[in-house]
Design brief:
429 residues; 17 strands; 15% strand
């Protein structure tokens, strides 16, 4: 049997080419090149995304459904962008809708889901999640919904699946679980979460915001009912996206103005969207596909039906490359005196993590470490990054939280070396 094009020999990620696509990576601070290790809060943007935004504003800027050129172009661009996200997620284009960001979309969507729930129905969230996948569900407590929280295993910051099972009862209607944890990088067994939800007769809402820059998403293979992500975390502009199974998006009652279309996906896209941002999202998906095409020259040319295959191919080389960086970074971190590491540190289990890590140092609080690194051109985050259930559970919320270092495929071994050297200096001086 012939091998598929993604099984053939491929080249490794061409990091020089990747970095050349991102103009912002040229920034310097105090004579140091900027090392953007802040990706979990939003990634940098390649030139082709900037060009797409500018092109839309110059040549197509209009509202939708008008009887003139720029409006027609806008309608076509929106249809193409929905198709791009459908290729990215592995679904149909009317099953995805855009909005300002994941948080805003999820608050609105949770309210619509709440219309189908009764007092004493239950929703299960987790202690590992960003609050954007907790607070919108807890807002439903006002109508008598009960929200339960599945615990973690503190020793490696993984979801306690036994506890999750215990939290599911005959009244459970929804499991809201993250694909990957934005504070410590754990990948959850979401396939099992979806299975448990289905077994209980409940729906599953997967927050894939943190996973999306690191791994391929296949909503059909997962079988989840809903999934959310944010294109600004995968090289696009500030946007949010939700996928929903068509049957749900048709059945649920959206909060919408009466004259707005009632068909999919428009019924979920409230008001006038950021069209230029959505044009940028399509370009971000094409940027990811272009990584796959460069690494696997046998893939079909763009544009064409091969975009999904190119995206999957891209994530293969991204995964290999990021895995190498993560192994180097974590091995180096574990040698730093007085460093506490939160999350999976055993390389044999790295398939269950993305290259985002949470640490603390005995000698300096997270805010101090972040500013020490920032002065040296190394961008990281301190605090809870809205994963407040987790920082509380780890007992660090009152004491500055964690320092988060997040790598993506435009980062380099040299940047990891600089990080390790600077942290070592701070920890031992
Ligand atoms: C895991 C996770 N979920 C949700 C969000 C919220 O996304 P948005 O900023 O698009 O509202 C974030 C943002 O940091 C996140 O990391």
């Amino acid at each position: 049997m012939a091998a598929s094009s993604t099984e053939r020999t491929h080249s490794a990620l061409d990091v020089g080419w990747v970095r050349a696509q991102f103009p912002s990576l040229r920034l310097t601070i105090n004579g140091h090149p900027a090392a953007f290790l802040d990706a979990p809060a939003g990634t940098q943007v390649p030139r082709q995304v900037m060009d797409a935004i500018q092109d839309y504003l110059m040549n197509s800027n209009a509202n939708t459904a008008g009887a003139f050129l720029t409006s027609r172009r806008t309608d076509e661009m929106l249809a193409a962008a929905h198709q791009a996200m459908a290729d990215f997620l592995g679904c149909e284009r009317d099953e995805v809708f855009f909005g300002q960001n994941m948080t805003t979309l999820t608050f609105a969507f949770a309210r619509a889901i709440g219309r189908e729930l009764k007092a004493r129905d239950e929703i299960v969230t987790t202690a590992l999640d960003h609050d954007a996948n907790v607070a919108p569900w807890r807002a439903l407590e006002e109508q008598g919904i009960v929200v339960r929280q599945a615990d973690i295993r503190v020793e490696d910051c993984t979801l306690d699946m036994e506890d999750l099972r215990r939290k599911i009862t005959g009244r459970t209607k929804l499991l809201a679980v993250g694909y990957a944890a934005n504070a410590v990088g754990t990948i959850n067994n979401v396939a099992e979460v979806v299975r448990l939800a289905r077994e209980a007769g409940a729906h599953s809402f997967i927050d894939a915001v943190h996973y999306a820059p690191h791994g391929p998403i296949d909503v059909r293979a997962l079988g989840c009912d809903f999934l959310a992500c944010s294109p600004y975390k995968f090289f696009g502009p500030h946007q949010g996206v939700i996928y929903g199974k068509r049957e749900h998006l048709q059945r649920l009652r959206a909060y919408k103005v009466r004259p707005a279309p009632d068909y999919l996906p428009d019924r979920w896209e409230t008001g006038t969207l950021s069209h230029e941002g959505i044009a940028g999202v399509a370009a971000a998906v094409d940027y990811i596909a272009s990584i796959g095409r460069r690494a696997f020259p046998n893939l079909p040319e763009a544009p064409g039906p091969g975009r999904r295959e190119a995206i999957l191919a891209a994530y293969r080389v991204i995964h290999e490359y990021e895995g190498g960086l993560a192994r180097k970074m974590i091995a180096g971190l574990l040698e730093i005196p007085g460093l506490t590491f939160y999350g999976i540190s055993d390389p044999a289990r790295f398939d269950w993590r993305v290259p985002t890590v949470g640490i603390r140092l005995a000698r300096a609080k997270p805010a101090k470490i972040a500013s020490y690194l920032g002065d040296r051109g190394i961008f990281t985050w301190d605090g809870n990054y809205y994963a407040v259930n987790l920082t509380e559970r780890l007992g660090v919320e009152h004491d500055g939280g964690l320092l988060r270092i997040g790598l993506v495929h435009y980062n380099t071994e040299q940047e990891v070396d600089r990080l390790l050297t600077a942290l070592h200096e701070l920890a031992t001086r």
